[in-house]
Amino acid sequence: MSFTRIVTHNDFDGIASGALCSAIHEVEEVAYTGPNTVTRQGFPVTEKDIVCDLPYPGECGLWFDHHAGNAEELKRRGKDLSAIPGRFAPEKSCARVIFEFYRDDYEFPEFYEETVREVDKHDSFGFESLEDWRRECPSRIINCSLKARFETKKAEEDYYTRLLFRMAESPLPDIAEENEVRTLYQQYLELEKKMLEMIAKSARFHARDTKHDYVIIDLTDLHRPFQVERNLAQLIYPNIRGVFLLQHLFESGVKTNNFMLSGSLTLKGEGKSSKDIGEIMRSLNIGDGHPGAGSGQIFCVTKPEFERKRNDLLDKVHAIWEGQ
Hints:
With 324 residues, this protein is of the alpha/beta class. The chain has helices at residues 12-25, 35-39, 68-76, 94-102, 111-123, 130-134, 138-145, 153-169, 172-176, 179-202, 233-236, 277-284, 303-323; strands spanning 5-9, 29-33, 49-52, 62-65, 86-88, 203-204, 214-218, 242-251, 254-265, 287-290, 293-298. Strands 6-7-8-9-11-10 form a 6-stranded mixed sheet. Strands 2-1-3-4-5 form a 5-stranded parallel sheet. Helix 1 packs antiparallel against helix 5, helix 1 (12-25) packs across helix 8 and helix 4 (94-102) packs antiparallel against helix 5. The longest helix has 24 residues, at 179-202. The termini are far apart.
Protein backbone atom coordinates (compact mmCIF):
# COMPACT_ATOMS: atom_id res chain seq x y z
CA MET A 1 0.00 0.00 0.00
CA SER A 2 1.19 3.53 -0.74
CA PHE A 3 0.75 6.24 1.87
CA THR A 4 -0.02 9.91 1.27
CA ARG A 5 0.54 11.58 4.64
CA ILE A 6 2.46 11.31 7.90
CA VAL A 7 0.59 12.35 11.05
CA THR A 8 3.04 12.80 13.89
CA HIS A 9 3.53 14.29 17.34
CA ASN A 10 4.69 17.91 17.40
CA ASP A 11 7.96 17.34 19.28
CA PHE A 12 11.56 16.22 18.61
CA ASP A 13 10.69 12.52 18.70
CA GLY A 14 7.65 13.03 16.49
CA ILE A 15 9.65 14.96 13.92
CA ALA A 16 12.45 12.38 13.92
CA SER A 17 9.85 9.62 13.54
CA GLY A 18 8.32 11.48 10.62
CA ALA A 19 11.77 11.89 9.05
CA LEU A 20 12.36 8.14 9.12
CA CYS A 21 8.95 7.35 7.66
CA SER A 22 9.25 10.02 4.96
CA ALA A 23 12.58 8.55 3.83
CA ILE A 24 11.30 4.97 3.81
CA HIS A 25 7.91 5.58 2.21
CA GLU A 26 8.70 8.74 0.20
CA VAL A 27 5.81 10.67 1.73
CA GLU A 28 5.91 14.46 1.37
CA GLU A 29 2.77 15.59 3.22
CA VAL A 30 3.10 15.91 7.00
CA ALA A 31 0.59 16.96 9.67
CA TYR A 32 1.24 17.60 13.36
CA THR A 33 -0.98 17.10 16.39
CA GLY A 34 -0.92 16.08 20.04
CA PRO A 35 -2.12 12.95 21.84
CA ASN A 36 -5.15 14.55 23.49
CA THR A 37 -6.51 15.71 20.13
CA VAL A 38 -6.20 12.19 18.72
CA THR A 39 -7.82 10.65 21.81
CA ARG A 40 -10.80 12.99 21.42
CA GLN A 41 -10.97 12.01 17.74
CA GLY A 42 -10.41 15.65 16.91
CA PHE A 43 -7.96 14.95 14.10
CA PRO A 44 -9.23 13.02 11.04
CA VAL A 45 -7.01 10.12 9.97
CA THR A 46 -7.44 7.68 7.08
CA GLU A 47 -5.94 4.36 5.98
CA LYS A 48 -3.54 6.33 3.76
CA ASP A 49 -1.87 7.92 6.82
CA ILE A 50 1.19 6.81 8.79
CA VAL A 51 0.69 7.76 12.46
CA CYS A 52 3.76 8.25 14.69
CA ASP A 53 4.22 8.80 18.43
CA LEU A 54 0.49 9.24 19.04
CA PRO A 55 -2.42 7.13 20.35
CA TYR A 56 -3.92 4.72 17.83
CA PRO A 57 -6.66 6.69 16.05
CA GLY A 58 -8.89 3.71 15.19
CA GLU A 59 -7.86 3.65 11.55
CA CYS A 60 -4.59 4.33 9.74
CA GLY A 61 -2.20 2.71 7.30
CA LEU A 62 0.67 2.24 9.78
CA TRP A 63 0.91 3.02 13.49
CA PHE A 64 4.15 3.43 15.44
CA ASP A 65 4.25 4.24 19.15
CA HIS A 66 6.12 3.61 22.41
CA HIS A 67 3.74 4.89 25.14
CA ALA A 68 2.67 2.05 27.44
CA GLY A 69 -0.69 3.64 28.26
CA ASN A 70 -1.71 3.72 24.60
CA ALA A 71 -1.05 -0.01 24.31
CA GLU A 72 -2.90 -0.72 27.56
CA GLU A 73 -5.92 1.25 26.34
CA LEU A 74 -6.05 -0.82 23.14
CA LYS A 75 -5.85 -4.06 25.11
CA ARG A 76 -8.63 -2.83 27.41
CA ARG A 77 -10.79 -2.29 24.33
CA GLY A 78 -10.04 -5.81 23.12
CA LYS A 79 -7.70 -4.75 20.30
CA ASP A 80 -4.97 -7.14 19.20
CA LEU A 81 -1.78 -5.05 18.92
CA SER A 82 -0.20 -7.56 16.55
CA ALA A 83 -3.09 -7.08 14.11
CA ILE A 84 -2.44 -3.34 13.73
CA PRO A 85 -0.05 -2.58 10.84
CA GLY A 86 3.16 -1.02 12.13
CA ARG A 87 4.61 -1.63 15.58
CA PHE A 88 4.22 -0.80 19.24
CA ALA A 89 7.24 -1.31 21.50
CA PRO A 90 8.10 0.23 24.90
CA GLU A 91 11.30 1.83 23.60
CA LYS A 92 12.87 5.12 24.73
CA SER A 93 11.47 6.88 21.67
CA CYS A 94 9.08 6.29 18.80
CA ALA A 95 11.98 6.95 16.43
CA ARG A 96 13.68 3.91 17.96
CA VAL A 97 10.56 1.79 17.34
CA ILE A 98 10.57 2.74 13.65
CA PHE A 99 14.34 2.34 13.28
CA GLU A 100 14.28 -1.19 14.73
CA PHE A 101 11.19 -2.13 12.70
CA TYR A 102 12.83 -1.31 9.36
CA ARG A 103 16.55 -1.76 9.97
CA ASP A 104 16.72 -5.31 8.55
CA ASP A 105 14.79 -4.42 5.39
CA TYR A 106 15.90 -0.87 4.66
CA GLU A 107 19.45 0.40 4.19
CA PHE A 108 19.57 3.44 6.45
CA PRO A 109 22.28 6.09 6.07
CA GLU A 110 24.95 5.60 8.73
CA PHE A 111 24.05 8.81 10.57
CA TYR A 112 20.50 7.60 11.31
CA GLU A 113 21.72 5.47 14.21
CA GLU A 114 23.29 8.48 15.93
CA THR A 115 20.17 10.59 15.27
CA VAL A 116 17.95 7.97 16.89
CA ARG A 117 20.36 7.61 19.82
CA GLU A 118 20.11 11.35 20.49
CA VAL A 119 16.31 11.30 20.20
CA ASP A 120 16.25 8.43 22.71
CA LYS A 121 18.18 10.57 25.16
CA HIS A 122 15.92 13.60 24.83
CA ASP A 123 12.57 11.81 24.83
CA SER A 124 13.44 9.63 27.83
CA PHE A 125 15.38 12.42 29.56
CA GLY A 126 18.24 9.97 29.75
CA PHE A 127 21.04 12.40 30.54
CA GLU A 128 23.90 11.54 32.86
CA SER A 129 23.93 14.85 34.72
CA LEU A 130 22.65 18.42 34.67
CA GLU A 131 25.83 19.36 32.83
CA ASP A 132 25.16 16.70 30.20
CA TRP A 133 21.58 17.97 29.76
CA ARG A 134 22.65 21.61 29.45
CA ARG A 135 25.67 21.00 27.23
CA GLU A 136 25.37 22.76 23.88
CA CYS A 137 25.40 20.02 21.27
CA PRO A 138 23.59 19.50 17.93
CA SER A 139 20.62 17.60 19.39
CA ARG A 140 20.08 20.23 22.11
CA ILE A 141 20.28 23.07 19.60
CA ILE A 142 17.72 21.41 17.32
CA ASN A 143 15.39 20.35 20.14
CA CYS A 144 15.42 23.84 21.66
CA SER A 145 14.81 25.44 18.26
CA LEU A 146 11.45 23.66 18.17
CA LYS A 147 10.46 25.45 21.39
CA ALA A 148 11.05 28.99 20.15
CA ARG A 149 8.04 31.25 19.68
CA PHE A 150 6.59 31.45 16.19
CA GLU A 151 4.32 34.20 14.90
CA THR A 152 1.68 31.76 13.65
CA LYS A 153 0.84 28.08 13.86
CA LYS A 154 1.55 27.79 10.14
CA ALA A 155 5.03 29.29 10.56
CA GLU A 156 5.71 26.82 13.36
CA GLU A 157 4.56 23.79 11.38
CA ASP A 158 6.37 24.94 8.24
CA TYR A 159 9.58 24.98 10.27
CA TYR A 160 8.83 21.52 11.67
CA THR A 161 8.41 20.21 8.14
CA ARG A 162 11.61 21.79 6.83
CA LEU A 163 13.45 20.29 9.78
CA LEU A 164 11.82 16.89 9.29
CA PHE A 165 13.04 16.59 5.71
CA ARG A 166 16.49 17.86 6.66
CA MET A 167 16.70 15.17 9.35
CA ALA A 168 15.80 12.59 6.73
CA GLU A 169 18.81 13.53 4.62
CA SER A 170 21.48 15.03 6.91
CA PRO A 171 23.17 14.31 10.26
CA LEU A 172 22.28 16.46 13.26
CA PRO A 173 25.64 18.34 13.42
CA ASP A 174 25.11 19.67 9.89
CA ILE A 175 21.54 20.75 10.61
CA ALA A 176 22.51 22.46 13.87
CA GLU A 177 24.86 24.79 11.96
CA GLU A 178 22.12 26.16 9.69
CA ASN A 179 21.24 29.82 10.19
CA GLU A 180 17.52 29.28 10.74
CA VAL A 181 18.14 26.64 13.39
CA ARG A 182 20.78 28.72 15.19
CA THR A 183 18.56 31.81 15.14
CA LEU A 184 15.62 29.94 16.66
CA TYR A 185 17.92 28.37 19.24
CA GLN A 186 19.14 31.80 20.35
CA GLN A 187 15.54 33.01 20.54
CA TYR A 188 14.72 30.04 22.74
CA LEU A 189 17.62 30.84 25.10
CA GLU A 190 16.18 34.33 25.63
CA LEU A 191 12.76 32.81 26.25
CA GLU A 192 14.31 30.35 28.70
CA LYS A 193 15.45 33.22 30.94
CA LYS A 194 11.82 34.35 31.26
CA MET A 195 10.76 30.78 31.98
CA LEU A 196 13.20 30.55 34.88
CA GLU A 197 11.87 33.82 36.30
CA MET A 198 8.30 32.52 36.04
CA ILE A 199 9.19 29.20 37.68
CA ALA A 200 10.88 31.02 40.57
CA LYS A 201 7.66 33.02 41.14
CA SER A 202 5.14 30.21 40.61
CA ALA A 203 6.71 27.06 42.06
CA ARG A 204 5.69 25.57 45.40
CA PHE A 205 5.68 22.28 47.26
CA HIS A 206 2.60 20.31 48.25
CA ALA A 207 1.73 20.92 51.90
CA ARG A 208 2.27 17.25 52.73
CA ASP A 209 5.49 16.93 50.73
CA THR A 210 7.71 17.50 53.75
CA LYS A 211 10.71 15.97 51.97
CA HIS A 212 10.38 18.48 49.12
CA ASP A 213 10.51 15.55 46.73
CA TYR A 214 8.79 17.30 43.82
CA VAL A 215 7.79 20.83 42.92
CA ILE A 216 4.48 22.14 41.54
CA ILE A 217 4.59 24.99 39.00
CA ASP A 218 1.12 26.53 39.11
CA LEU A 219 0.40 28.92 36.23
CA THR A 220 -3.38 28.86 36.59
CA ASP A 221 -3.45 32.49 37.78
CA LEU A 222 -2.16 33.69 34.40
CA HIS A 223 -4.65 35.16 31.94
CA ARG A 224 -2.52 34.49 28.87
CA PRO A 225 -0.72 31.34 27.71
CA PHE A 226 2.87 31.14 28.91
CA GLN A 227 5.28 28.50 27.68
CA VAL A 228 7.36 26.79 30.38
CA GLU A 229 9.83 23.92 30.24
CA ARG A 230 9.10 21.96 33.41
CA ASN A 231 12.55 20.50 33.83
CA LEU A 232 14.14 23.92 34.20
CA ALA A 233 12.83 23.76 37.77
CA GLN A 234 15.71 21.48 38.75
CA LEU A 235 18.13 24.33 38.07
CA ILE A 236 16.42 26.18 40.94
CA TYR A 237 15.63 23.10 43.06
CA PRO A 238 18.51 20.69 42.30
CA ASN A 239 17.39 18.03 44.81
CA ILE A 240 13.85 17.43 43.56
CA ARG A 241 12.94 14.15 41.86
CA GLY A 242 9.91 15.38 39.94
CA VAL A 243 8.13 18.43 38.52
CA PHE A 244 4.42 18.96 37.91
CA LEU A 245 3.00 21.84 35.88
CA LEU A 246 -0.56 23.19 36.08
CA GLN A 247 -1.86 25.36 33.24
CA HIS A 248 -5.26 26.49 32.04
CA LEU A 249 -6.32 25.51 28.53
CA PHE A 250 -6.94 28.38 26.13
CA GLU A 251 -9.25 28.43 23.11
CA SER A 252 -8.48 31.06 20.47
CA GLY A 253 -6.47 32.90 23.10
CA VAL A 254 -9.33 32.90 25.63
CA LYS A 255 -8.78 31.30 29.03
CA THR A 256 -11.17 28.45 29.87
CA ASN A 257 -11.93 26.67 33.15
CA ASN A 258 -10.34 23.52 31.73
CA PHE A 259 -6.77 22.81 32.72
CA MET A 260 -3.83 20.53 32.08
CA LEU A 261 -1.50 18.70 34.42
CA SER A 262 1.85 17.58 33.07
CA GLY A 263 4.81 16.12 34.87
CA SER A 264 8.30 14.76 34.48
CA LEU A 265 11.03 13.14 36.49
CA THR A 266 14.24 15.06 37.02
CA LEU A 267 17.72 13.64 36.66
CA LYS A 268 17.61 12.69 40.35
CA GLY A 269 14.35 10.81 39.79
CA GLU A 270 14.88 9.34 36.33
CA GLY A 271 15.90 5.67 36.37
CA LYS A 272 16.77 5.70 40.07
CA SER A 273 13.38 5.04 41.64
CA SER A 274 10.01 3.44 41.09
CA LYS A 275 8.34 6.78 40.27
CA ASP A 276 6.30 6.69 37.06
CA ILE A 277 4.68 9.89 35.75
CA GLY A 278 2.73 8.12 33.01
CA GLU A 279 1.24 5.74 35.57
CA ILE A 280 0.16 8.71 37.69
CA MET A 281 -1.75 10.14 34.71
CA ARG A 282 -3.34 6.79 33.97
CA SER A 283 -4.29 6.23 37.62
CA LEU A 284 -5.99 9.63 37.64
CA ASN A 285 -7.72 8.67 34.35
CA ILE A 286 -6.82 12.02 32.80
CA GLY A 287 -4.09 11.14 30.31
CA ASP A 288 -0.99 9.06 29.65
CA GLY A 289 2.77 9.10 29.23
CA HIS A 290 5.79 6.99 30.01
CA PRO A 291 7.78 6.66 33.26
CA GLY A 292 9.74 9.86 32.72
CA ALA A 293 6.94 12.18 31.59
CA GLY A 294 3.19 12.41 31.06
CA SER A 295 0.22 14.75 30.86
CA GLY A 296 -3.55 14.88 31.12
CA GLN A 297 -6.49 17.25 30.84
CA ILE A 298 -9.31 18.04 33.26
CA PHE A 299 -12.55 19.66 32.12
CA CYS A 300 -14.55 22.05 34.31
CA VAL A 301 -17.68 24.12 33.72
CA THR A 302 -17.22 26.78 36.40
CA LYS A 303 -14.34 28.44 38.24
CA PRO A 304 -15.38 26.94 41.62
CA GLU A 305 -15.38 23.51 39.97
CA PHE A 306 -11.89 24.18 38.62
CA GLU A 307 -10.58 25.23 42.05
CA ARG A 308 -12.10 22.16 43.70
CA LYS A 309 -10.76 19.78 41.07
CA ARG A 310 -7.31 21.36 41.05
CA ASN A 311 -6.89 20.97 44.81
CA ASP A 312 -8.33 17.46 44.78
CA LEU A 313 -6.08 16.48 41.88
CA LEU A 314 -2.93 17.67 43.62
CA ASP A 315 -3.87 15.71 46.75
CA LYS A 316 -4.36 12.58 44.64
CA VAL A 317 -1.06 13.14 42.81
CA HIS A 318 0.72 13.34 46.16
CA ALA A 319 -0.93 10.15 47.42
CA ILE A 320 0.01 8.23 44.26
CA TRP A 321 3.55 9.63 44.28
CA GLU A 322 4.04 8.56 47.90
CA GLY A 323 2.62 5.13 47.14
CA GLN A 324 4.90 4.39 44.21
